[in-house]
């Protein structure tokens, strides 16, 4: 029988008697188990210690051994960590701060109990509170070798980078690294001699790296991410560099441009704490982490390269572009034009001649923090390409040695819209319009070349295999189309190393092209 949450067993006939009656408690019935099905034991989750403190790069073990009951499973949820199972959870953190910890225990009868606490991670004794010219990279990040900092420095020294990737070996940027290193007083010899043992000092990195690292640290960027960026921070100017493009670019561009438009949804300061280990070897596990977005298409049967998405009218992308909602959650994106989940602005251009035309979406990071761009999804409305040459395109960024370094492959779809699917605001455009979505998938290069830096540009170009000068033969028509691209664009940077899988699944962004 069940009474007041417990299960009781009768010794003999006791119909109508209550278990808790003093006369019956010990004579007629006995308690078998509580109503939770956990064999009579009170199920309690206990984290010990309740409010532990540890230091950066030091492991701490959280124990659930004081939990009570007939427990079958222990599940830990800790900020920035994968779920951990077991009585003990040992974790290490690379950044100071407060981290939420939750323990859930499950009893044999299926009931659960939870305990929560906050783990405080303090700066380690070897981590300086203030960076100076005398601070070494080992002082700054004791785990610098695990982050491949020496290799990142030495593999791409200014003046020693030849060729490129993806057929872009002959290209260059307007302000080469060798010139920047000279202007910013970077000590190349000190990098060669001292990066390996960690004795390389910030002062040897010239005039730029220390100020940028200090700014990023004060804004909350993890030290491991800053350290991975140092080989580019030492070459990062204070002024905004003029953007360059693949091919002839602006030399054959329309006079009409769209924007610049700030993100109209006014996003808050955007933090990416989980920058992956920037492996430089070709070990399988290291490459798998560094190039996790790139390899997804190789390992998932959903992906193809057959451009079979031109009439995929069931895609959530259509509703997204008509209603300004997030394709995965359905939540409003906010704003009334260009939107993003991080602070930035957009400008748009059309480049080309004859049959080779490109939509150029130019973005500027307007925040005080850098963004790594791997896994970024961008969508917009643009002139139809009819799937002809979507494989032709590029990613442009002045903060890399040559255009081909840091190059991404792309997951890309195009959906040519029927007349009734075109947003009312653009119904007057007398040309076929398509919905586009692109996800950037980098490989073979350091994260510092996959990064949008404060007050600097990055861009993508997507080919449109149509003679656009004939379709848009007046200044008014040209202005209308570049404005539409800018106003309908959205940028979704990756968070928590999630590859933006929810967006990819919602809009069926399963088409990989190379460059």
Characterization of the model:
There is one protein chain. The chain has 515 residues and is α+β, with helices and mostly antiparallel strands. The chain folds into 4 domains: 2-31, no CATH class; 53-122, Immunoglobulins (Immunoglobulin-like, Sandwich); 137-234, no CATH class; 261-268 and 279-513, no CATH class. The protein contains 13 helices and 23 strands. The protein has a 6-stranded mixed β-sheet with strand order 12-22-16-19-18-23. Strands 4-10-9-6-7 form a 5-stranded mixed β-sheet, with no helix packed on it. A 5-stranded antiparallel β-sheet has the order 11-13-14-21-17, covered by helices on one side. Helix 6 (209-218) runs antiparallel to helix 7. The longest helix is centred in the C-terminal third of the chain and has 14 residues, at 475-488. It is globular. One of its GO terms (molecular function) is carbohydrate binding. Residues 53-126 form the PKD domain. Pfam families: PKD_4. This is Chitin-binding protein. One of its GO terms (biological process) is carbohydrate metabolic process.
